[in-house]
Write a structure and sequence with these properties.
Blueprint: E1 6-7, E2 11-15, H1 21-29, H2 44-55, E3 61-67, E4 72-82, E5 85-93, H3 97-114, E6 119-125, H4 129-137, E7 141-142, E8 146-148, E9 153-161, H5 165-176
Helix pairs in contact: 1-2, 3-5
Length: 179
């Protein structure tokens, strides 16, 4: 669990709390937004239990993204941390594209600059073009699609490097912070 609130120009991200259980269940029930993710049972008590467990799991950070007015607009996470690598995922946003990009950048800054990770890996459903585009824009290098038999889907696996992050961050910020 991260005690800090990480702020950008459009969003802030903070660790999920039990008070966010309703939102985290509701956002996962949106069939259009959730069509590329595994389903979550619409059970608040189970979600609260999962949040409690997650908060005590070492190497697992699950963030709520909020607009600067406090409105909850999504989730993003860094998890499965082993040595200097971690998984960037759990991205589900209902905000605008600028907010989505900024939430991802903030989570990557957290991973690289606070946790000291050197690499982030991720997996994206091959038909999830928006997530693929965002991931590539922030520096994720994808391999050819592979079949994930456990989830019965085709995915692209990728990796992003801390050493390349300043370049990609600068390119994304030039797009989203045009004043």
């Amino acid at each position: 669990m991260c005690e800090k609130i990480l702020k950008g120009r459009y969003v802030q991200i903070r660790s999920i709390t039990e008070n966010d259980a309703q939102f985290s269940v509701e956002i996962r029930q949106d069939k259009e937004k959730n069509k590329f993710l595994h389903t979550v049972e619409a059970n608040i008590d189970k979600q609260i239990a999962w949040i409690k467990k997650q908060q005590n799991s070492e190497g697992d950070y699950f963030f709520i993204a909020e607009a600067l007015d406090g409105k909850k607009i999504g989730t993003v996470g860094i998890y499965d941390i082993k040595e200097k690598t971690g998984h960037l995922g759990r991205l589900l946003m209902i905000g605008n594209p600028f907010q989505t990009f900024e939430a991802v950048l903030l989570s990557m800054e957290f991973a690289y600059n606070i946790l000291g990770l050197e690499e982030l890996y991720g997996d994206v459903h091959v038909d999830n073009t928006p997530s693929l585009n965002i991931s590539e824009a922030v520096g994720m290098h994808f391999k050819e699609p592979e079949y994930d038999g456990e989830l019965d889907r085709w995915v692209k696996y990728g990796i992003a490097y801390k050493s390349e992050f300043p370049k990609y961050k600068g390119e994304v910020e030039a797009l989203i912070y045009r004043d």
